[in-house]
Amino acid sequence: MSRRLRTERARARGLATALAPGLAATLALGLAAARARGLATALARACAAVLALGVVAALGVAPAPAAAAPFDYALTARPEQAGARQFEVAVDAMNDTLDVFDIRGRDPVYGGTNVGDYTGAHLRGGWKLAERWWIDAALWRRKIEYRNDSGSLTSWQLAAQYRFAGDAGDVGGGSSGATATAAGPTGGATAWALRGSVWGNRSGTLDKRSPTALAGYTMDSVAIDSPRDLQWQFDVIATRGGADASVSGFVGIQRGKVDYSRLSGTATAGTCPYAVAFGDSTTVLTQTADCTGSGGTLAAGTQVTVDNSALGLNPRDALAYTATVLRAGVNAHKRWGAWQLRGGLAYEHHDRGNALEDAAQSLSGTYESGNLSAALELGYRFTPTLTGFVRGTAWQHQLMGEVPFLYNAVTARRSDRRYGIVSVGVSASF
User: Which of 85, 145, 57, 167 is nearest to 398 (CA)?
Assistant: First the structure.
């Protein structure tokens, strides 16, 4: 092998080693200001500019609509009390104007920037299928801004619920003047229900297209294909009260999987351009164009393969995992004429396995397993069937439960940030 070829291969291997943690941070959907050990200074600069959604997650800027696991704050064993058929549409947002508590503004890194600006919308519908059966579905579309880049994702939910004890209570159906009966807020039997749901989040490709300096090299772009999660959730719900006032509680368990299809990027070492692909066990660098150096020209197509163990990081251990989640919560609602107030609290505990926890401790120096969320909604009934509302939601540890794929070994470092979001919309019951 010629000296020139050996030199170029050595340079490519050096590039692979330098880029590994940076691209892993990209796969993690970015860590804004990560100080991973080893390449701390270089990685902090690189990772602070990666994927919009990941940076938002790492910062704790929550790209989500209503609550922790979808709409948990509003779970009730008597959903038909608001109407046998229900529909909700809303816009969800966060920006400097809506950040009334100045949470983002006080951030030492992103205060005063557009990092974490969120725009989105969601639809939700429910239907009383039979006397004790209820089904509902929801769909979200979200977009997050990060400087000159942005990222989008789609979220969805399907659920079925069966009330196995207690009756429907007094049904308001959105009509004014609904009165409490024997099943009202202070009397009557408690209703119990079982609920099963499947939900998830997915994005096509999240990428950063602007160059980033890293350890003496140039990372021209980084991308993750099809980051996603799929969750199965089962809850037991108890409700006491009627259409004018009620209190509910729930406990549940969830099993989910976080995964991705491909992590890749492009980089430059000297004058040589490379395509970089991270696999489950190896990283491959492929020269994408002829490269002219002091020893002559090296043809495109030259490849260098590096074992991931030599890089000190296995992307699958750090970024893809299965998890079991235990959850519990309480909520209540009250009507005064045309006005309605609803609020709830929920807590969830995540067990993601030893591999992810160890990787998070290694890369981020911390690991979060619990998350508390709270929601408060004020509504006004314009007609017997149409209600407008404004809803605020707050999270203790950002979106660990709402968009699970945003939490991993790299973003764990910023998961201690609190955040909130505002939704404004209308609901119809008939």
Answer: 57
Q: Which two tokens stand for residue 220?
A: 């021209």
> What are the strands, taking DSSP E only, across 147-185?
149-165
pLDDT surpassing 80 at residue 228: yes
Q: CB–CB of 114/147 below 8 Å?
A: yes
Classify residue 59 as left (phi > 0), alpha (psi -120 to 50) or beta.
Answer: alpha
Cα distance between residue 374 and residue 393, in whole Å:
6
Compute the distance between CA of residue 158 and CA of residue 285 in angstroms, rounded to an integer. 42
Hey, which residues does 286 pair with through a beta bridge?
A: 275, 303
* CA 331 vs CA 108, 185, 247, 344, 373: distances in Å: 35, 13, 6, 4, 12
| CA nearest neighbour of 99 among 418, 411, 429, 427 | 418
User: Tokens for 338?
Assistant: 């045309």
**CA 93/CA 100 separation, integer angstroms:** 13
**Residue 359: left if φ>0, alpha if ψ -120 to 50, beta else—which one?**
alpha
pLDDT tens for 7-52 read 555 555 555 555 444 443 333 333 222 222 222 222 223 332 333 3
Weakest-pLDDT range from 55-59, 203-207, 361-365: 55-59
Tokens standing for residue 401: 């439960």
Two tokens, residue 95 = 């920006």
Residue 406 to residue 27: CA distance in whole angstroms: 10
Question: Residue 369 and residue 288: Cα distance in Å, rounded?
Answer: 42
Whether 353 has a pLDDT exceeding 70, the answer reads yes
Beta partners for residue 347, in sequence order: 328, 372
DSSP character for 407?
A: -
Give 280 or 425, the one with higher predicted confidence: 425
Contact 430, 382 (CB under 8 A): no
